């Protein structure tokens, strides 16, 4: 199973005149981060809400909204009339002194600190249970969305890995020809500058072996195959949270591709290396979205 970190979940429930609406939007993120917008009535339960979401979603950047409405309106609020009167007297006095128009002071007063505060009403146990059930329903909806997105990510990643494996096979096919070209080029240079009859055959063979060993890419290609195989094994793993592990394996794949390119010293092989790098970058972009 593979899950994406992106998705959207929504749930709504109603009991009598009270309705509860939960909306959750999830994006990719290195850790678990929540931007929580909740009714003041839910402040005592904020820790429970965050804990429940982390248990279910594990990782990602979340925008969460939980609204409790009654008769189509949010829960009652309290207006501090004494504080509003004090603000009114101070504002009108200042306006008179500065000879400024007073305009719609009521609208200004309602926005001043502590004038309007949430009511002291608290949720009952049954009401909190309704909120919790609605939140779980929204989380389930989001999780299903993540699974659907994950299947598409998995298919794309498998294709990228298959392409890299195919291109590395082309490199293996070209490698013996590359070695022959290197040998012929070195022998030609020695014959041109030293003279064919003046070349020590045994010494030349030793130097060629040493030089070709420095340019040998067989170990890099073998390690690359192992990394590709391990990447596929992780994709099949039952643990849905494996984005970081896949990212680490892609780093190792990139290291072998880069070393192959730097040691190859061959234009034909370099073309396949470029294609492998292109597939690798596309895979890295996709893995950023994996849970």
From TrEMBL:
Signal peptide: none
Family: Belongs to the YicC/YloC family.
Residue ranges of every copy of the Endoribonuclease YicC-like N-terminal domain listed in the record: 2-154
Domain Endoribonuclease YicC-like C-terminal positions: 173-290
A Pfam family hit: YicC-like_C
Cofactor dependence: a divalent metal cation
Coiled coil residues, start to end: none
Protein name as it appears in the record: TIGR00255 family protein
Taxonomic superkingdom: Bacteria
Keyword terms, alphabetized: Endonuclease, Hydrolase, Nuclease
Record carries keyword Transport: no
A Gene Ontology molecular function term of the record: hydrolase activity
InterPro entries for this protein: YicC-like_C, YicC-like_N, YicC/YloC-like
């Amino acid at each position: 199973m593979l899950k994406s970190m992106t998705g959207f979940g929504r749930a709504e429930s109603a009991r009598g005149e009270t309705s509860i609406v939960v909306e959750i939007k999830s994006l990719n993120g290195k850790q678990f981060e929540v931007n929580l917008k909740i009714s003041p009535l839910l402040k005592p339960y904020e820790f429970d809400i965050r804990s429940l979401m982390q248990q279910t979603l594990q990782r990602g950047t979340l925008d969460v909204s939980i609204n409790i409405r009654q008769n189509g309106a949010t829960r009652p609020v309290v207006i501090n009339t004494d504080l509003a009167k004090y603000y009114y007297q101070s504002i009108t006095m200042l306006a008179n002194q500065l000879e400024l128009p007073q305009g719609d002071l009521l609208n200004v007063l309602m926005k001043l600190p502590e004038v309007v505060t949430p009511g002291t009403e608290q949720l009952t146990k049954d009401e909190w249970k309704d909120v919790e059930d609605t939140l779980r329903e929204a989380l389930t909806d989001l999780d299903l969305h993540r699974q659907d997105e994950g299947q598409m990510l998995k298919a794309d990643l498998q294709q990228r890995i298959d392409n890299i494996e195919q291109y590395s096979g082309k490199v293996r096919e070209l490698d013996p020809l590359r070695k022959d070209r290197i040998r012929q080029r070195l022998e030609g240079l020695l014959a041109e500058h030293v003279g064919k009859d003046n070349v020590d055959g045994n010494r030349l063979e030793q130097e060629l072996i040493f030089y070709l060993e420095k340019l040998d890419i067989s170990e890099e290609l073998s390690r690359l195959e192992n990394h590709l195989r391990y990447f596929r094994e992780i994709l099949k793993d039952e643990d849905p949270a494996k984005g970081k592990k896949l990212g680490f394996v892609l780093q190792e794949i990139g290291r072998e591709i880069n070393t192959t390119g730097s040691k190859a010293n061959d234009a034909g092989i370099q073309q396949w290396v470029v294609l492998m790098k292109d597939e690798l970058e596309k895979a890295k972009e996709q893995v950023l979205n994996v849970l």
